[in-house]
């Protein structure tokens, strides 16, 4: 009996060990997942004061690392947050996190928060920013949705105006996006699309949006409308241009969305995913469109043929 118990404990420990195997970068040290903790006095926790990035690695190479770091440092610059590492050092720490965890395909989360300080908003209370890098697996939507497409709704929650928190900053303040996600969940779908206060389509809760109009043009909202300038979005625009497809940034409304021939969402976590209905209006033929599928193929080939190797 005791041997059995011992075996059970061992198996449990082995299973748990796999989980615990994950090493988190925290302020210069690599720490087991269970022990990687940030203070409750960190202003990232107290006030959502900080910036983050979500990055992917494919086949041992980090996709668009420089672009992600540029966005992170631009956001930090805007909120006057001094990242304690320079870009080269943060890139090296990111690659090292991947190596330490032996991950070939991964989702990487870099979080730079204002750091530990007293209660009170004043960022000067925080002498040093906290830097966390997590590398793990992610699958945002089940595989079947990439094949048959997503049903989405438009959210009642509007995008914040650029004169409030600039949507181009990937800040730790994601409550607006979470409210949009809650609307999706309440409607029984996986994602919701946001409009701005003028009724123009802007983006998803964690993704950018594209339509193919009746002329066969690929259209995505311009950044000045108030969106996160997605790195996947920019990649898809480049791939479309390279393939000779007409692509442009333009404003459009729910009507254009409902009457589009095709629609899809892009994001680092989501990659490229077809949308087949919006607010229960069928998009095109109600199946992933030809152009969407062609771009998905090009995207998957491209991500595996580029990026910074770390093996
Ligand atoms: N818009 C918003 C609001 C985002 O948060 C994107 C667009 C796509 O950008 P990239 O650069 O990734 O192509 C994002 C990024 C999630 C999750 O779990 C998604 C993001 C960030 C954090 C979490 O769905 N998306």
Set out the fold topology:
Blueprint: H1 2-20, E1 23-26, E2 29-32, H2 43-47, E3 50-58, E4 61-62, H3 65-78, H4 87-100, E5 106-113, E6 130-136, H5 143-148, E7 150-154, H6 175-186, E8 191-195, E9 201-204, E10 208-212, E11 218-220, H7 231-242, E12 247-249, H8 254-258, E13 262-267, E14 271-278, E15 281-282, H9 290-303, E16 308-309
Parallel strand pairs: 7-8, 7-14, 11-12
Antiparallel strand pairs: 1-2, 1-6, 3-4, 3-5, 4-16, 5-6, 8-9, 10-11, 10-13, 13-14, 14-15
The chain binds 3-[O-phosphonopyridoxyl]--amino-benzoic acid.
**Roughly what is the average pLDDT, rounded to an integer?**
93
Written as H for each helix and E for each strand, in order along the chain, the element string is: HEEHEEHHEEHEHEEEEHEHEEEHE
Q: Alpha-carbon distance between the termini? A: 45 Å
The helix count comes to: 9
CATH architect. name of the largest domain: Alpha-Beta Barrel
Tell me what you see in this structure.
The chain has 311 residues and is of the alpha+beta class. It folds into two domains: 3-136, D-amino Acid Aminotransferase, Chain A, domain 1; 143-303, D-amino Acid Aminotransferase, subunit A, domain 2 (D-amino Acid Aminotransferase, Chain A, domain 2), CATH 3.20.10. The chain contains nine helices and 16 strands. The chain has helices at residues 2-20, 43-47, 65-78, 87-100, 143-148, 175-186, 231-242, 254-258, 290-303; strands spanning 23-26, 29-32, 50-58, 61-62, 106-113, 130-136, 150-154, 191-195, 201-204, 208-212, 218-220, 247-249, 262-267, 271-278, 281-282, 308-309. The longest helix is centred in the first third of the chain and has 19 residues, at 2-20. The radius of gyration is 21 Å and the shape is globular. The relative contact order is 0.14. The model is unreliable at 1-19 (pLDDT under 50). The structure holds 3-[O-phosphonopyridoxyl]--amino-benzoic acid (PXG). 3-[O-phosphonopyridoxyl]--amino-benzoic acid (PXG) binds at residues 54, 140, 177, 203, 206-208, 228, 230-233, 266-269. Residues 54, 140, 177, 203, 206-208, 228, 230-233, 266-269 line the site of 3-[O-phosphonopyridoxyl]--amino-benzoic acid.
């Amino acid at each position: 009996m005791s041997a059995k118990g011992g075996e059970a404990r061992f198996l449990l420990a082995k299973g748990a060990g796999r989980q615990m195997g994950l090493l988190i970068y925290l302020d210069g040290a690599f720490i087991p997942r269970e022990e990687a903790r940030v203070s409750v006095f960190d202003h990232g926790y107290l006030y959502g004061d900080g910036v983050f990035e979500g990055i992917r690695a494919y086949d041992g190479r980090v996709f668009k690392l420089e672009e992600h770091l540029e966005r992170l440092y631009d956001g930090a610059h805007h909120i006057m947050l001094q990242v304690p590492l320079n870009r080269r050092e943060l890139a090296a720490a990111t690659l090292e996190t991947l190596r330490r965890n032996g991950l070939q395909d991964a989702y990487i989360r870099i979080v730079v928060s204002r750091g530990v300080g007293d209660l009170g908003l004043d960022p000067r209370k925080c002498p040093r920013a906290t830097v966390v890098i997590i590398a793990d697996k992610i699958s945002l939507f089940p595989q079947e949705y990439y094949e048959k497409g997503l049903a989405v709704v438009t959210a009642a929650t509007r995008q914040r105006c650029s004169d409030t928190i600039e949507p181009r900053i990937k800040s730790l303040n994601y409550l607006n996006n979470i409210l949009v996600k809650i609307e999706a969940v309440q409607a029984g779908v996986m994602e919701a699309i946001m409009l701005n206060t003028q009724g123009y389509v802007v983006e998803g809760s964690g993704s950018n949006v594209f339509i193919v109009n009746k002329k066969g043009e690929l259209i995505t909202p311009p950044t000045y409308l108030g969106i996160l300038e997605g790195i996947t979005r920019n990649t898809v625009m480049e791939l479309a241009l390279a393939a000779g497809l007409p692509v442009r940034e333009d404003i459009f409304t729910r009507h254009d969305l409902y009457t589009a021939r095709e629609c899809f969402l892009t994001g680092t976590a989501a990659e490229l995913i077809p949308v087949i209905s919006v607010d229960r209006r069928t998009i095109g033929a109600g199946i992933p469109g030809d152009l969407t599928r062609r771009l998905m193929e090009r995207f998957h080939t491209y991500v595996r043929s580029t990026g910074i190797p770390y093996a």
